[in-house]
Specification:
Helix content: 25-40%
Number of strands: 14
Strand order of the largest sheet: 3-2-1-4-5-6-11
Structural class: alpha/beta
Distance between the termini: 32 Å
Order of helices and strands: EHEEHEHHEHEEHEEEHEEHEEHH
Bound molecules: uridine-diphosphate-N-acetylglucosamine
Oligomer: single chain
Length: 317
């Protein structure tokens, strides 16, 4: 099996490539290295340096005996998407059209797509299952919904079977230290905590401690990136077995507060973590927790990492 991993030098993509190689599959990375890292490329995988907006190059990469595509390359910062929607429209929407057109032209029929819990917007209930209404509150979330809709049509009209994986809060790093390249400008909680532990930041600002949660801070569902990577390989195999297109939430169902993540960090490091309480961050839901029942029953996926302490340990290693 030969898989084209678009965005394979990035955070989740590099873990997916590792999982593919570990399972004996062939992988070719297509990445423009705008946010991914050269050091995240594995010697065992092929590499095409290319932009998702470069349609001819993408199509050529697709024609290289590819059986399935994993499509991760996208802009992903919620705040930035509200300030610069043009950038998100171009990269995420035009990028998705290019991927689907290149697949249609090259007759590649299996697609695993990086979606996000951001498609749900403010949760109406939780744990959130896949039937929860899609009501994105950021332009980023809107692009993910539209990308999923495009895939529905290409399934109907071109027979491209897809699996959209809606990640909750991706966190941690490969426990064996195989992935060295870290986000250049981290926006997410765990990489920020790492910077505090490393002394690159003075303290962790906790955005809001007056939410209706057990300690007043936001609850999230942190899912280990190696568990996410495993889900991609299961999803490819499922599609290549001829199963229909589907959407899966990927989370642990285990909600953890920001305060609990801070406490877990202190346990792992054995040192106090300097924190400061700051106002709520606009657009943050109080609770975001996945139901992963569908992924468990239909994909055969079960996260290995269920303790936030273990996840934090791999993030700090
Ligand atoms: C993240 C992603 C979003 C993705 C979603 C899926 C970003 C900016 N957000 O959202 O794309 O769709 O997961 O679940 O990439 N926090 C602090 N202090 C900080 C940073 C974060 O208190 O310095 C808090 C936040 O308020 C939040 C929690 O930590 O409650 C997690 O934040 P973050 O890592 O940014 O992820 P989400 O906003 O949940």
């Amino acid at each position: 099996m030969k898989v084209l991993v678009i965005g394979g030098a990035g955070y989740i993509g590099s873990h997916v490539v590792k999982e593919l190689l570990d399972r004996g599959a062939q992988a070719v990375v297509y990445d423009d290295l705008s946010s991914g890292h050269k050091i995240n490329l594995f010697p065992g995988a092929g590499f095409v340096e290319g932009d998702i907006l470069d349609y001819p190059k993408l199509k050529t990469a697709m024609e290289d005996g590819i059986d399935a595509v994993v499509y991760l390359a996208a802009k992903k910062a919620v705040g930035e998407s509200m300030e610069n929607p043009e950038l998100y429209a171009e990269n995420n929407l035009i990028g998705a059209v290019n991927v689907l057109n290149a697949m249609a032209k090259s007759n590649v029929k299996a697609l695993v797509f990086s979606s996000s819990a951001a498609v749900y917007g403010m949760p109406e209930y939780w744990p959130i299952d896949e039937e929860h209404p899609l009501n994105p509150i950021s332009f980023y979330g809107f692009t993910k919904v539209e990308m999923e809709r495009l895939m529905e049509w290409y399934d109907r009209l071109r027979g491209i079977k897809y699996t959209a994986l809606r990640y909750f809060n991706a966190a941690g790093y490969d426990a064996g230290g195989a992935i060295k390249g870290r986000d250049r400008n981290p926006q997410n909680l765990l990489p920020i905590i790492r910077e505090v532990v490393d002394g690159k930041r003075e303290c962790l600002q906790i955005f809001g401690n007056d939410y209706e949660t057990r300690d007043g801070t936001c609850v999230r569902d942190y899912v280990h990136v190696s568990d996410l990577a495993a889900a991609h390989v299961l999803a490819i195999n499922r599609l290549l077995e001829g199963k229909p297109s589907a959407v899966f939430n990927l989370g642990t169902t285990n909600g953890v507060t920001v305060q609990e993540v801070a406490a877990a960090t202190e346990k792992v490091t054995g040192k106090p973590l300097p924190v400061r309480y700051a106002p709520r961050r606009p657009g943050d839901p109080a609770v975001l927790v996945a139901s992963n029942r569908k992924a468990e029953t239909e994909l055969g996926w079960k996260p290995v990492y269920t303790s936030i302490e273990d996840i934090v340990r791999t993030e700090l290693a």
